[in-house]
């Protein structure tokens, strides 16, 4: 497949999990992928795996919380690879803690990565797109926690709700340049992040069965499921789609509540 031949696609947090899945699928579809992630070991490994498979990928060390790092990533992309067509804001962290134990440091860590990171990367990617008259797109990886959530998730839910609100505002601001902005809201997705969370719980096997049963389609998502939605939103097939949020969660968020009775 070569839907994205010669398109330059930046994926933040592509060193692992959902981001790595997105980077791989987009590269398979012909894109030149920038792996904009924080950890060198992960970044070089993903770059090496992808280039060994014959794909075009470049790791640029990036901390999305740091304005200079984000500017450096965009400048390096422009000078060494070319002008950005698609930005996928995927980098994110999670701290789930009871509200009364959550510290300001916890708040700053999550908001800086999950929300400020989206703002900084979008700002500099949009500058690049506007300067080069690129009718590009920005895709924000939010979460179903922006819609419905659980106890002890206040900071994460606030960050993800903020992403959805910012998506709509950016879509309106950037529409006049032909730049589209959408968000994807994954539910449970099978990454090491999810596995670490699960195995830290009591009776993880029982919990996993319960989680799957909550899904209308009977299972959680894979990173590739999320990547296919990115592929659609980055393509011309979605040419008139902007300012929208897309749940990819197997029907989990549609459920009002769970009962054995019906
Ligand atoms: N896994 C899930 O169940 C799930 C569900 C809903 C939403 N999400 C969202 O999907 C995104 C990816 O989640 P995941 O499960 O793949 O996470 P993950 O922990 O597996 O991967 C996150 C990646 O982001 C990188 N990263 C972290 N902080 C960074 C920073 N400051 N700058 C640059 N890179 C940074 C990490 O090094 C890692 O490579 C996140 O935004 C998360 O909130 C995940």
From TrEMBL:
Belongs to the short-chain dehydrogenases/reductases (SDR) family. Coiled coil: none annotated. It comes from the Bacteria. InterPro entries: NAD(P)-bd_dom_sf, Sc_DH/Rdtase_CS, SDR, SDR_fam. This is SDR family oxidoreductase. It comes from Sphingobacterium corticibacterium. Pfam families: adh_short_C2. NCBIfam families: PRK07231.1 (NF005559). GO terms for biological process: monocarboxylic acid metabolic process. The lineage of its organism: Bacteria, Pseudomonadati, Bacteroidota, Sphingobacteriia, Sphingobacteriales.
């Amino acid at each position: 497949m070569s839907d994205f031949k010669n398109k330059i696609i930046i994926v933040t947090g592509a060193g692992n999990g959902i981001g790595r899945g997105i980077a791989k699928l987009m590269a398979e579809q012909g894109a030149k992928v920038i792996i904009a992630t924080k950890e060198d070991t992960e970044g070089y490994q993903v770059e090496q795996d992808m280039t060994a498979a014959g794909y075009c990928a470049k790791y640029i060390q990036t901390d999305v919380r740091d304005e200079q790092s984000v500017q450096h990533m965009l400048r390096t992309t422009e000078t060494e690879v070319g002008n950005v067509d698609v930005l996928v804001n995927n980098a994110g962290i999670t701290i789930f803690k009871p509200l009364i134990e959550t510290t300001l440091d916890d708040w700053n860590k999550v908001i800086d990565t999950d929300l400020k990171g989206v703002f900084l990367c979008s700002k500099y990617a949009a500058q690049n797109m506007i300067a080069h008259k690129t009718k590009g797109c920005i895709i924000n990886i939010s979460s179903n926690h922006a819609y419905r959530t659980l106890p002890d998730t206040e900071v994460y839910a606030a960050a993800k709700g903020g992403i959805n609100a910012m998506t709509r505002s950016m879509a309106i601001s950037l529409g006049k340049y032909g730049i589209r902005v959408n968000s994807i809201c994954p539910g449970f997705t099978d990454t090491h992040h999810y596995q670490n969370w699960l195995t830290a719980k009591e009776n993880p096997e029982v919990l996993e069965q319960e989680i799957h049963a909550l899904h209308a389609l009977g299972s959680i998502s894979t990173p590739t499921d999320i990547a296919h939605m990115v592929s659609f939103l980055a393509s011309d097939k979605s040419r008139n789609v902007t300012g929208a949020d897309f749940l990819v969660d197997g029907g989990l968020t549609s459920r009002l509540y769970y009962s054995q009775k019906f």
